[in-house]
């Protein structure tokens, strides 16, 4: 049995179905030039033209119409067989790297919904503050805190709300309202972004507070846990403590939030979205970020 180059067959079938090189390229996530090259390769192999190149587009030749029918049927059979084997033998895995605080406070609480929607997929979360090499370490997506400039990588803003001081209501008893005057040096809870309290004090004209005072934690989730326990004030993004605020485990200080040029960004290699499973996760996590910002603005 003599078989043609199967990748060329796939590119031809998509081009014939769309009657367009450009639309086939969009479906296959390659360039139009790559599609044209594979179609010409198949025509050379078969020794006949499959398309008539017309001024307004492509039209199948008689041989092309006959061959398209056979190719579509063959690819459908292969596709169904592949789906059955893959679904029974392995699960699709998405590898995500993020800081420990972001993992605990934002990502993991939301993941249950994604996994319910996609029971054939697993998400592996690696928590670290160091910069990871996505290609070398097999990481599909990273969430990083910064200005979003990463050479050779795609970057999208995920969480960008302003910073607010929060504390436990127990720290305020018998009052229930947190005031700027309640914040003292000894009550400061710092996370890995230690300079945030200094910026907040400067923005609000707060004097007499030693911004180096208080307790320093390696991760923001530890600072938030300390605030819930009534140990002091943590300066955090509201999106990371939305559940605690709704449950009244934390209350925010009545003051203007601190705007910052930094944000949590979703970072990935441009070719990552070729994979349908990774595209599903990307669409989900971006939607979660947008929904969170919308709920905070209400």
Automatic annotation (TrEMBL):
Which of UniProt's keywords are assigned here?
DNA-binding, Transcription, Transcription regulation
Q: Name one GO biological process term.
A: DNA-templated transcription
Tell me which domain of life the UniProt entry assigns to the organism this sequence originates from. Bacteria
> Matching PROSITE patterns, A to Z?
HTH_LYSR
**InterPro entries found in the cross-reference section:** LysR-type_TF_proteobact-type, LysR_HTH_N, LysR_subst-bd, WH-like_DNA-bd_sf, WH_DNA-bd_sf
Domain HTH lysR-type: where?
A: 4-61
Query: Which Pfam families does the record match to this protein?
Result: HTH_1 (PF00126), LysR_substrate (PF03466)
User: Could you tell me which Gene3D superfamilies the record lists for this protein?
Assistant: Periplasmic binding protein-like II (3.40.190.10), Winged helix-like DNA-binding domain superfamily/Winged helix DNA-binding domain (1.10.10.10)
Q: Name one GO molecular function term.
A: DNA-binding transcription factor activity
Recorded hits in PANTHER family, A to Z, give:
GLYCINE CLEAVAGE SYSTEM TRANSCRIPTIONAL ACTIVATOR (PTHR30537:SF26), HTH-TYPE TRANSCRIPTIONAL REGULATOR (PTHR30537)
Q: Which family does it belong to?
A: Belongs to the LysR transcriptional regulatory family.
Q: What is this protein called?
A: LysR family glycine cleavage system transcriptional activator
